[in-house]
Amino acid sequence: MMSLFSGARVIDPCQGLDDISDILVKDGKVAAIGRDLTSALGRDVEKVDLRGYAVVPGLIDPHVHFRDPGQEHKETVISGCASAAAGGYTSVIAMANTSPAVDSVETLNYVLEKGKGSPVRFCSVGSVTLGLKGEVLSPMGSLAEAGAVAFSDDGFSIVDSEVMYRAFEKAAELGLPISVHCEDPRLWGDRTMNRGALSDALKVKGVPKVAEEAMIQRDILLASKTKARVHIQHVSTALGVEMIRRAKEDGIEVTAEATPHHLILTEEVLSVHGSQAKMSPPLREARDVEALREGLRLGIIDVIATDHAPHSEEEKGRGLLESPNGIVGLETAVPMILTELVGKGHLSINRMVEAMSCASAGIFGLPGGSLRPSCVADMTVLDLEARWTIDADRFESKGRNTPFDGAPVVGAVIGTALGGLMQPVANK
């Protein structure tokens, strides 16, 4: 079967492509890309007119929490995948901090089976340690053989450096990266907000930046000594960006991600949004936001990842001190990045696409990330001119916990294509 997606602005940084083009898809893969392909085709081709829209390689989020198994009242694999598709994603990587944790082949098989037939390519990490306790390594080899695409104890740093060193040794042997949450729990405070002048004024202990920075430096060093690949999750400080820059210059195999909320918001929004803007690591100061944006623009920060973390209304209603960390992000990432970064000149749309698709495909060895001929035909269709208002009540996710509810935005996801099969976005 062949399909022709015609007349769109095709943006593919892997090919240096940003032009009006047609995309011919055959048997789930890109067969050809170029102008005026229609004239060379017969009648047995399904045609999809995308004039006025932009088409990019399917978006990939390497950092989501779907809470399944164990906390299905917050999210399930099914609802999480629906949320991802609504947000324009064609692939996601779920974290292991479920209950039980994804620290066994049995649990990994459970989540992968639930993801089959979903509107996105559902992938999962395996945990680094049993029960995410940071003490005993998980059966990393068996998890890799069963389909884990990486390893992570996200939610926690592994404090014991010997355990972390052995984990990096094993990951290097397996050829898979470890995605690390860098936050020293011995410096956490109450995990409510950034420690600084604002927290002092509010008489809240908060989390100092050094809690993150010290672990970034340690994990970069351990990865360099073991020749492992380390992916630094949700970087939030200016010094963290600088450490990663230096490590890359030294040839260490380090990659990094930043979230839309850390790229857009500062700690001051806590006074407006309260627990809806509480996450780990916490929102930082304006100079950290500027450093993250510049790091992303330059490629020091490789990836934009959502850290999609749904919680129930009751949990987030417990107040700033008692509510859990995390916000949802799959359905707000594209419009917020287009509006606040691309629309305001902080980031080119080509760099946005690279950071939301191409980079993750390369780092985690996933299909997609480009629309070159022979690549899997995973695509995201965007209306770059659409003006609308984010409404959390219309999310496909079970979570409504976001500081972006009610935000006016420019740019919307129209649909996705998974293996060339077009899927319009729900509620649009």
From TrEMBL:
<feature type="binding site">
    <location>
        <position position="307"/>
    </location>
    <ligand>
        <name>Zn(2+) 1</name>
    </ligand>
</feature>
<comment type="function">
    <text>Catalyzes the reversible cyclization of carbamoyl aspartate to dihydroorotate.</text>
</comment>
<dbReference type="InterPro" id="IPR011059">
    <property type="entry name" value="Metal-dep_hydrolase_composite"/>
</dbReference>
<feature type="binding site">
    <location>
        <position position="65"/>
    </location>
    <ligand>
        <name>Zn(2+) 1</name>
    </ligand>
</feature>
<dbReference type="InterPro" id="IPR032466">
    <property type="entry name" value="Metal_Hydrolase"/>
</dbReference>
<feature type="binding site">
    <location>
        <position position="181"/>
    </location>
    <ligand>
        <name>Zn(2+) 2</name>
    </ligand>
</feature>
<dbReference type="InterPro" id="IPR004722">
    <property type="entry name" value="DHOase"/>
</dbReference>
<keyword id="KW-0665">Pyrimidine biosynthesis</keyword>
<keyword id="KW-0862">Zinc</keyword>
<feature type="binding site">
    <location>
        <position position="234"/>
    </location>
    <ligand>
        <name>Zn(2+) 2</name>
    </ligand>
</feature>
<feature type="binding site">
    <location>
        <position position="154"/>
    </location>
    <ligand>
        <name>Zn(2+) 1</name>
    </ligand>
</feature>
<dbReference type="InterPro" id="IPR024403">
    <property type="entry name" value="DHOase_cat"/>
</dbReference>
<keyword id="KW-0479">Metal-binding</keyword>
<protein>
    <recommendedName>
        <fullName>Dihydroorotase</fullName>
        <ecNumber>3.5.2.3</ecNumber>
    </recommendedName>
</protein>
<comment type="pathway">
    <text>Pyrimidine metabolism; UMP biosynthesis via de novo pathway; (S)-dihydroorotate from bicarbonate: step 3/3.</text>
</comment>
<keyword id="KW-0378">Hydrolase</keyword>
<feature type="binding site">
    <location>
        <begin position="65"/>
        <end position="67"/>
    </location>
    <ligand>
        <name>substrate</name>
    </ligand>
</feature>
<feature type="domain" description="Dihydroorotase catalytic">
    <location>
        <begin position="54"/>
        <end position="237"/>
    </location>
</feature>
<comment type="similarity">
    <text>Belongs to the metallo-dependent hydrolases superfamily. DHOase family. Class I DHOase subfamily.</text>
</comment>
<feature type="binding site">
    <location>
        <position position="97"/>
    </location>
    <ligand>
        <name>substrate</name>
    </ligand>
</feature>
<dbReference type="InterPro" id="IPR002195">
    <property type="entry name" value="Dihydroorotase_CS"/>
</dbReference>
<feature type="binding site">
    <location>
        <position position="311"/>
    </location>
    <ligand>
        <name>substrate</name>
    </ligand>
</feature>
<feature type="binding site">
    <location>
        <position position="154"/>
    </location>
    <ligand>
        <name>Zn(2+) 2</name>
    </ligand>
</feature>
<dbReference type="Pfam" id="PF12890">
    <property type="entry name" value="DHOase"/>
</dbReference>
<feature type="binding site">
    <location>
        <position position="63"/>
    </location>
    <ligand>
        <name>Zn(2+) 1</name>
    </ligand>
</feature>
<dbReference type="InterPro" id="IPR050138">
    <property type="entry name" value="DHOase/Allantoinase_Hydrolase"/>
</dbReference>
<feature type="active site">
    <location>
        <position position="307"/>
    </location>
</feature>
